Structure formats: C-alpha cells, structure tokens
Fold this sequence. Notes:
By secondary structure, this protein is of the alpha/beta class. The protein has two domains: 8-36 and 91-346, Purple Acid Phosphatase, chain A, domain 2 (4-Layer Sandwich), CATH 3.60.21.10; 41-87, no CATH class. It is 22% helix and 21% strand. It is built from seven helices and 15 strands. It has helices at residues 59-87, 105-117, 137-145, 171-175, 180-185, 222-233, 261-264, and strands spanning 8-9, 92-97, 121-124, 165-166, 195-199, 202-206, 238-242, 268-271, 277-282, 285-290, 307-311, 316-322, 327-333, 338-344, 350-351. The chain is globular.
Amino acid sequence: MRGAYSAFVLLAVAPCLGLACGTLHDAPDGADATADAVAPGTATATTTLDPPDAAKPTDAAAARDAASDDASSAASDADSAASDADAGPPDVTFAVVGDFGSGSAREAAVAQMIASWRPNFVVTTGDNNYDGDIDSYDPNVGQFYHAFIAPYTGAYGAGAAKNAFFPAIGNHDYDIGGGAPYFDFFTLPGNERYYEVAEGPVRLVFLDSDAREPDGRTPGSVQGTWAETRMAAATEPFVLVVFHHPAYTSGSREPTMLWPFKSWGADAVLTGHVHNYERLTDVGLTYFVNGQGGHSTAGFGAIHSASQLRYNTMDGAQLVTVSRTKATFRYFAVDGTLVDIYAIGPDGLPVPP
C-alpha cells in the first residue's frame, strides 16, 4: 500500500469534488454476462463558601472527577478519530464511458443509466464528440452530462457546483477545430491534455495518446516523463491510467502507448477508441477497452492473446468502486445486464469481486 493520502485532492487547478455517493444498481436477477468467445471544555468547579456536605464529595474532589471524566472523554474522542483515520476515506464510485458524443438516443440511454448510478464523478476514454461543428459540444456532451460539469454555461440546465466530469481527449476531439472547442468546453487541471485527479483511495492519470500531442506520446517524452513522475509520487492505494487509443485490444491497437505502466506504479489502464468492450491482462496489468458509450458498436479482429472477455452486443459503460483494499470494475450493457465484473487489489493483481 502506498503512503498516507488525502480524502480528496484535485491536482493542478481544479477544485475538489463533493458529490454524495448514491445507491448502486446491480443487473436484474438472473441476468447473465454476455461475452464473445470468453467472458471518515474542561469542567470548571465553582468554589462555594458553605462547608461541604459530608455525604457528598468536596468541590475539589468533584472537580478532579469532572476533569478525569473530561480526560477520559477526550481520550475516547482521540481514539475514535484515530480509528477513523485508520479506516481511511469512504469508497468512491465513478462511471467510465467512451466514444459517445453523437447526440443520439443511444448516447442518451447510456447517460441515463450512468445518472441512475449517482457516481461521484464521470471519466471518459475519449471521443467525447463526433460532430464537426465547433458549437456541438453542448448538444453532444452537455445535453446528457451537464449535471457533472463545472463550470457549465450551456443550454440544458444547471451544471455541477464543482466539476465531476473528467475526459480523456480523443482523435475526434482533435478533429474538431484542432481541439479548440474541446478545451473551450471543459475546464480541466494542468494543460488539460494530460493531467491527474485524486479522490480518496484512487488517483487517475489522464494521458493524451493522439499523435498531435505536442509533448510527445512515448515513455521518454515530456508527457511520459511527467506521467512517470506523478505516478511515482502517488500516495493513494490505487493508480489508474486513462487514455484513448488502446495499447491492448483485439481491434485497432496503438503500439506507441505500450508504456511501462506497471513498473511506474499503475494498477489498471482504461482506454477506448475501439467501439466495443474488452478486458485484457498482460505483464501483470489489466487493460480495459471501453468504447461503445452510445455512438456505435464494432466487431473484433484477430483475438489478442491477452484477451479475457469481449462484448459488443450493445452499448454500455463501466461502474468502478474503489476502497483502500479493492477496486471493482463492473461493465453494464445499456439494458442493465451485468456483462463483466472484475476486481484487483492495490498491487493490481486480481482478487475476488
């Protein structure tokens, strides 16, 4: 386990989050996972001029007793506070969705499912918008996720008091005005292309996997050096990496993003780009492809040797719950079916869900 950590830290410029964590909805009873091929005053004695009652303690004795009681109470409070500190912050839950920004009924259905989970925040794996119009982020993103976004000045209602929407940038985001509308719509930490967010027991490191990233996308690049440094500095039990183009997939993979995340301290990697869902494990690290959030679904190519479960029957999203000792990843199809459930410990290795 990494060292002591704060209840919430949003690195760089964004403020902390304060959304309450709500009830999680499991899949309907009897629903089966569907897979392709594999599945935390001192009492003051009053001096009296009357002689003490022989049947009662003296005022001095009463004061001593009161002081003793206060000391005991303070010790109890200290023990309780220490116990709370040992217990750490409460679990956090967040949704993960990718490749969704179409403004369609399909996107609306996935967003409605995510809202029903009442997550602490939403993470995206990129391609937040597919429309070429520079003004399309509000109808394609704000329309469905404005309740999580701050500051939000769009047309679809009130935004969040504090930002709870953290996207990775995708190739389609860059395709619209060179990424300028993306940066105008979202207010994110750091340079907004790659940044980090920490809440309770988890730190998320967002990277830019697109070839247009000016700081490079190799392990030795400016971006790569930043990521290695920030992951090494993490004190949270879990470190998750998020970016768009998958390094592992049974679809179109991006070998450039084969970074030594495991040795840098990552416990899992969340990606998108390929419009299906897949879980793969290699070199002791689990990679998720989560890219069917409401735009479209796609088939699988040659099955990767690290592939453990694949699904592309319908759109969906992940619900992730993280405690000090376990991170549990659930993938739900948009109809509520629980497709996949997988858990890891702070060392990134699988544990019972």
